[in-house]
Amino acid sequence: MYVHTGPMYYRGLCHLFFQYNPNEAKWGDIVWAHSVSRDLVSWTALEPAIKPSKDFDVKGCWSGSATLLPSGVPVLMYTGINIHNEQVQNIAYPANLSDPLLRNWSKPAYNPVITAGHGVNASAFRDPTTAWLGPDKLWRVVVGSRDGNEGLADLRMATGRHPRPHPSGAGPVGCPHPRVKLPSLLTVLYRSRDLKKWSKARHLLHSGSTGMWECPDFYPVAVAGDYRRGVDVAELRDCVVAKEVKYVLKVSLDLKRYDYYTVGSYDHATDEYVPARRESSPPPRATSSLPPPTPPSLSFFSLLEQLFAFAETNPGAEVLAGVERERQEEHGLQAWEPWEQGQDWTSSSMGEWELEHGVRHLDLVGQSKAAAQGSSAPGLAAFRTSGDGVWRRRFPPARSYSDSDLGLRYDYGNFYASKSFYDPVKRRRIVWGWANESDTGPDDYHKGWAGIQAIPRKIWLSPKGDQLIRWPIEEVEALRQKHVNLSRRVIKGGHHFEVTGFKSVQSDVEVVFELTDMAAAERFDPAWRMDAQALCARLGAHVKGGLGPSTSFGVGGRASILSRVYPSHAVGDEAGLYVFNYGESNIKLVKLNAWELKSPKINVP
């Protein structure tokens, strides 16, 4: 089992399509497997919905999404690998609408409906989102991609970008040849009136230099009234709704294998998505005066000569080297690349000219190569100019580098390639995530399967509007059986106790702790956000004061960690539930509720 592709509701049933290899427990020979459920907990397996069969998908039917038309007809859009090994986007319709199980699907002869086209890498062009119909009666869909250039993190089409030349003239730093270009990771927006003929929008939806963006998801979230309710993309046909909601863009970073998201605004008139600011900054601190932004008549290399001359006469100064990318007359936007003596920078992003306290300014954020490779060393620099020729260093960055390791994540463990859908029965948005195996390939072969779907989670925007809340769907509680509860216990440092009275091998636990003394608490290290699961595995629960392995939802659903565990001793009746405190100070167990969980029926015919 691989990533899920097109979850949706149709005629009282939830349909879950997912990537599946019917021949062996490893990637390859991918089809769209199909299961249905009435409660999102127990599932019935059906025959695969889509298999490779045509020139446009003969080498694989990869990920995609499901869309419900205004008439109620479901449509599947998916990535096919054609006879030329190119990734193209196709659609399929139910062969029999009267069949609530939707067991057979038809692929129109006019497929593919979207091809990579000029400026898009056909070998990295996949995973279309759920399509939505805007107030202008145009369908829109977002596709994950990567091009051959280092990109700008804004909403415009990426054009060429010059890597920073080495001062010696030997070619771009870090590149074996002057023509080698760094990849840009982007989500491409397409529009259509009939779902058959699609054209690329004038703007990219979003982009950045953080690895291939797989399985993008783009959906509205409520900000007023009952903010916990889900918003169906079908509601975006109403211009009032389209303007009053916020939007979530989730991307799955292929290099990191994690899901990151931003929350922002989207304008259907301009097709611009603008992520919201998440961090405030102290007043800018002037560090050095540099040449003013480059006029079009000044060549790139002439600018570099000025900048390097400035650096030589001002040791230790922060220097910006850049060249105008493409004149955007409506915004006057320019692209720059930051360079600091002793640092090797791999990416940068720039916002639009904005007003703050009456001052017009432009922000730039750069990420160092060391930070991109996982170093915990400081790797972000932010600069601001008001167009007066003075660049001022800003730290922390005025804009969060929200699509990188410093951004918001759905889950801080083994959770990838998630996909959300709208539940019209309970008016909620639900997200599924996929968890890969962490044991070996031979182990997968012997057990005959690999990969699981995580417990479905309801998802909504927090009251502050700055991050998403995730919590297991209420249907999971139907699996609860024998119950035990504890309260008002003090656990001394270095002590533990076992929770008895039920079988804990498969359990649901809710617990609240109170810390009475924070003086000896560990200071939070921001580097922990990089890979919480690896941190837990490295420290282990036996390390005094360290972080222990966990699979949990915390802080009211603002954070979660999903882990794969393969016990060798705690199996069956040998499993136990323990409350432990390996810190130095006492903690108070306010309350604990634990239930045995019965097993759901999974893919039982």
Automatic annotation (TrEMBL):
Signal peptide: none annotated. GO terms for biological process: carbohydrate metabolic process. Keywords: Glycoprotein, Glycosidase, Hydrolase. GO terms for molecular function: hydrolase activity, hydrolyzing O-glycosyl compounds. Residues 273-293 are annotated as: Disordered. Residues 6-152, 187-276, 397-472 form the Glycosyl hydrolase family 32 N-terminal domain. Pfam families: Glyco_hydro_32N. Belongs to the glycosyl hydrolase 32 family. This is Glycosyl hydrolase family 32 N-terminal domain-containing protein.
